[in-house]
Amino acid sequence: MHLIDYLLIAALIVLVVIYVVLIPISRNKQMKQQKAKMDKFYASLSKDDEVLLRDGITGVIEKINGDKIKLKVASNVVVNVNKYGIISKIEEEENE
């Protein structure tokens, strides 16, 4: 075998190592950062926050009990939802 063949094999091995080891490590780090961000968001939820659910329903938090939240979606209508169904808080406009 020639020197160029060895260099080609070495280059392929390096690419395989990058693909198999380094890329999953990078993705894992990004997933941990996203999970930490969402955990912080869920911990910040409190009574009287107006929130948006994944399916587009909005409401005001009446009570929080662990992962379960009582959400007022209309006058005299309170539904039980899982807190992980909430995707964002609805901030009030300052100019209203």
From TrEMBL:
GO terms for cellular component: plasma membrane. It comes from the Bacteria. The chain crosses the membrane at residues 6-25. Keywords: Cell membrane, Membrane, Protein transport, Translocation, Transmembrane, Transmembrane helix, Transport. It is found in: Cell membrane. Its main location: membrane. InterPro entries: Preprotein_translocase_YajC (IPR003849). GO terms for biological process: protein transport. It is a single-pass membrane protein. PANTHER family: SEC TRANSLOCON ACCESSORY COMPLEX SUBUNIT YAJC. Belongs to the YajC family. This is Preprotein translocase subunit YajC.
